[in-house]
Design a protein that fits this description.
Two copies of one chain form a homodimer. By secondary structure, chain A is α/β, with parallel strands linked by helices. Chain A folds into three domains: 181 residues, MoaB/Mog-like domain (Molybdenum Cofactor Biosythetic Enzyme, Chain A, 3-Layer(aba) Sandwich); 69 residues, 2-Layer Sandwich (Alpha-Beta Plaits); 150 residues, Alpha-Beta Complex (Maf protein), CATH 3.90.950.20. In chain A, the strands form five sheets. In chain A, strands 4-3-5-10-9-8 form a six-stranded mixed β-sheet, sandwiched between helices. A five-stranded mixed β-sheet of chain A has the order 15-14-16-17-18. In chain A, helix 3 packs across helix 4. Chain A is globular and about 75 Å long. Chains A and B meet through helix 1, helix 2, strand 4, helix 6 and helix 7 of A and helix 1, helix 2, strand 4, helix 6 and helix 7 of B. Strand 15 of chain A pairs antiparallel with strand 15 of chain B.
């Protein structure tokens, strides 16, 4: 039996995530907090059975909490803890649980020390110091409004948790919650992903049917721009980590069923892993982006410390910019801007200018305009130039502009990763 | 009475949006489809009262549909219409409504003509041709799986709608649904937004309390990186559009209450509007990004036709890259990379190299590393160089790395927009 199990039932095993706020319900804000919390809860051994959004309305918040407590034992609310009149999550939770609200002087002092001075700041501090009776306070390490953890239900085995909505605060306070979830469930799930760059989702589903229709481990396909992911998930077997045997077995079976390579995280395709791998090798990178328009730069610079590796990234959207970088005008005229020759010239020119070990060149037609019979909209070329020459790949995505742009960045990272670490 | 109103009740006035898929429920995929659909439904006169995610499970899908039909009259399901065994939305809808499923030969032919050949393609086409009995088929203009609109309830005044999950297909088929929603509701809501770049959310909430606590029009504040938005919303008064009187009155009152300028969409701050404004003026732009790391490039190139205006964008993350662009090494040594002098030099150097009318330079400390006492983490400088000189602004955001990066890109767009179109 697990640490958190009583009578065979793992504590906080089933979770609900409720995003609070008109801005989420009406689509002004995309609910990235909910996705983050879902992934983290799964890692901590709790499974989201329910995700929903409710507006800034005390009755709706209270009803959502009561409804969720009928189905799950951990209810996480995100948002609505701020200083404005439409921040109503505290009131909704108090109403759902039939409790009062008090002001905690220690919380007030904590917030006061961190709150920016300005008009209305005393009212703002007062509102954010309001705590539901009986709640454990989770002080906010990156902002002012604290989180609150309210135990409830028979033997206090259920919990309602309030987290602030700004994403960095949700993550900062959420980390305190996740520590408690790991303790409560006493277990961890392992989820591993394999990537396929050479088949469509239909084709991959055809080959993998025995795995996708099996019950153990949980398996699913997901299409991202430029890549299909196979996800396998099972409970961890040892505290030290490592793949559960069922996942390892299914992965080996998947590779035997599919006639093209599958790539796992041993290949440094994700931005942070790619930068780490290059840093460990003492290698640098420069990028010339046409069709991807800065997406690869944005992905790489999202990782702290990217400047150790990424010497320069230039978005050369126009022919003139490509020529300024060093692509010969005659080459552009002869082959057209979307061509193997120009992708290679971009990779080599930016590598030369920045004096790096690796150079990436990306060119294509994102649409809706552009393209011709030979190179229709959605076609892109990625080239990776390195000490031992340049490798280019042509791909096509029959999707919207942003999908083509993202697929091109994904393909470039994949190509550099397999250049560093070839498939056996 | 409105076109769509019967007995005082507007048809399809209340909506629910249900995202289907383990990948959404478990956070592998962020639910951008739901946000998009919510915004579009509001514009079409229908209000989302409920958003939720359910996993790939027939019972859960059916239960969510039945639950939603008790509260709203339009239920939009997104996802789970693909070709794999875990695409179960058709079955869930049939079960919830007590209907059968048939294969529509016309749909099969339509899909066959668009489906890529490959292993498993016949099974894939067959599954995607399955239609719930009595459904209106919404053929997919950008993919294969069609949407389905199933009228139900008393007098068939309710509807359950199935849309495909890939974002471009959701939008393509969703457009056919939204046309029918506009006809059904016979009305349109107008939502307008004002932006504040000079106050915190607490300060703005303090000044705007009379408007935020009033009942008409609906009003709300929302914090995005680098800017606070004031959103006002009311029903459109004329078919031609224009601001409803209540919104215009509240906006004027808001500007009178707040001691700093508020900016509406007359200022071309959003990427598409900024590019349009520059194009109309026949002006071009070059950008040198340090702290924002390609985010401004990615925002601008997300807009089709950006290459008319954006001559070049260079991500100069390292000192060496800044020097290659033309920032004097002595200037970097004397002032440090995060300084007004370097922001100005970046803007002027990239403008000179690309030969554009405008140049933008962005430098700062995104964190978690970097920064010092004078220029702590979160500090950034944006400079806009143009025919009449260079203007620089220093700002600071006490938030996470990605917030600082996005705030810097937002500030740069704002500064160029107000340079083109000054506040009175």
């Amino acid at each position: 039996m697990h640490a958190g199990a009583v009578g065979g039932q793992v504590m906080w095993e089933r979770a609900a995530i409720i995003a609070v706020g008109d801005e989420v319900l009406t689509g002004e804000v995309v609910n990235t907090n909910g996705s983050w919390m879902a992934r983290e809860l799964i890692r901590a051994g709790s499974r989201p059975l329910l995700q929903q959004c409710v507006g800034d309305d005390v009755e709706a918040i209270a009803a959502a909490i009561r409804g969720a407590l009928e189905r799950v034992d951990l209810v996480v609310l995100i948002g609505g803890l701020g200083p404005t009149p439409d921040d109503l999550t505290r009131l909704g939770a108090a109403q759902a649980l039939g409790r009062g609200i008090h002001r905690d002087p220690a919380v007030t002092e904590y917030i006061r020390a961190r709150h920016r001075q300005g008009v209305g700041h005393e009212a703002s501090i007062a509102q954010q110091s309001e705590i539901v009776d009986g709640a454990e306070v989770l002080l906010n390490p990156v902002g002012t409004a604290p989180g609150q953890l309210i135990r409830t239900g028979p033997q206090e085995r259920q919990a309602v948790v309030l987290l602030p909505g700004p994403p960095s605060e949700c993550r900062g306070v959420g980390a305190l919650l996740l520590e408690r979830v790991r303790q409560a469930t006493g277990r961890q799930l392992v989820r591993a992903t394999w990537h396929c760059y050479d088949l469509t989702e239909s084709e991959l589903a055809h080959y993998l049917r025995p795995i996708l229709t099996g019950l153990h481990p949980r398996a699913g396909l997901y299409t991202r721009p430029g890549v299909i992911d196979l996800r396998l998930e099972a409970e961890a077997e040892a505290a030290g980590g490592g793949l559960p045997a069922a996942v390892a077995r299914a992965a080996a079976e998947a590779q035997a069923l599919v006639p093209v390579p599958l790539y796992d995280d041993a290949w440094p395709i994700a931005p942070d892993r790619l930068l780490d791998a290059l840093r460990r090798r003492g290698e640098t990178l420069a990028v010339a982006e046409s069709v991807s328009g800065g997406r690869l730069a944005a992905e790489l610079t999202a990782v702290p410390g990217a400047s150790d590796v990424l010497a320069e990234d230039v978005v050369v959207y126009t022919d003139a910019a490509k020529v300024r970088l060093g692509v010969p005008a005659e080459l552009l005229a002869e082959h057209g801007p979307v061509s193997q020759a120009v992708a290679e010239a971009l990779a080599e020119a930016v590598r030369r200018r920045a004096g790096t070990v690796w150079g990436i060149g990306i060119t294509g037609w994102a649409g809706p305009g552009g393209g011709d019979e030979r190179e229709p909209v959605g076609t892109y070329y990625c080239a990776v130039a390195g000490p031992d020459g340049v490798v280019t790949r042509r791909r096509r995505t029959r999707m919207a502009r942003e999908v083509v742009q993202q697929a091109a960045a994904e393909t470039a990272r994949f190509m550099l990763a397999t250049r560093i670490h070839p498939h056996p």
